[in-house]
Amino acid sequence: MSMTDTIADYLTRIRNAAQAKHTKVDVPASNVKKQMTKILKEYGYINNYLLIDDKQSGLIRIYLKYDSEGDSIITGIKRVSSPGLRRYVNSKNIPRVYNNLGIAILSTPKGVISDRDARKLKVGGEVVCYVW
């Protein structure tokens, strides 16, 4: 059985693991998912991640982050663009997630980057997801 939306699967695994209070979650690796995980680490939404070679595409082990009360740092994660309906924005219309309390991850000609980096580089692209 082939999966049509691997990014949605990636986001769902993270969302479900955070709601179940797991310390880590394994997701199948791809270059886009590696870049998205790097952005989540850079903005402090996860503790760390580890790339695991399993003789196939590989795995990304994501270590989730919680606050002092045990609540997940990732309170919401939402897929925006899907294979059936792509959402593109130009550099002037890049969305702000919760008044810049969250981030939008975009796939641009400069690579997979956050909304803040896209504004600095003045580049638009496909809005992959929102994280807050």
Question: Notable features of this structure?
Answer:
3 helices; 132 residues; Dna Ligase, domain 1; 25% helix; five-stranded antiparallel sheet; alpha+beta; 8 strands; globular; three-stranded antiparallel sheet; Ribosomal Protein S8, Chain: A, domain 1
Fold and architecture overview:
- This protein has helices at residues 6-19, 31-42, 115-121; strands at residues 24-28, 46-52, 59-64, 77-79, 88-89, 103-108, 111-114, 125-131.
- The radius of gyration is 15 Å and the shape is globular.
- The longest helix is centred in the N-terminal third of the chain and has 14 residues, at 6-19.
- It folds into two domains: 6-64, Ribosomal Protein S8, Chain: A, domain 1, CATH 3.30.1370; 77-131, Dna Ligase, domain 1 (2-Layer Sandwich), CATH 3.30.1490.
- The strands form two sheets. Strands 4, 5, 6, 7 and 8 form a five-stranded antiparallel β-sheet that branches. Strands 1-3-2 form a three-stranded antiparallel β-sheet, covered by helices on one side.
- It has 132 residues and is α+β, with helices and mostly antiparallel strands.
Biggest β-sheet strands, sense, barrel: 5 strands, antiparallel
> How large is the share of residues in beta strands?
25-35%
Radius of gyration: 15 Å
Average pLDDT for all residues: 96
What are the segments in which pLDDT stays under 50 over at least 5 consecutive residues? none
CATH class of the largest domain: Alpha Beta
Order of helices and strands: HEHEEEEEEHE
Q: Supply the helix-strand structural class.
A: alpha+beta
User: How many domains, as an integer?
Assistant: 2
Helix fraction bin: 25-40%
Q: Count helical runs.
A: 3
What is the straight-line distance between the termini? Answer: 32 Å
CATH architecture annotation name of the largest domain:
2-Layer Sandwich
What is the name of the CATH topology of the largest domain?
Answer: Ribosomal Protein S8, Chain: A, domain 1
Beta strands, count: 8
Overall 3D shape: globular
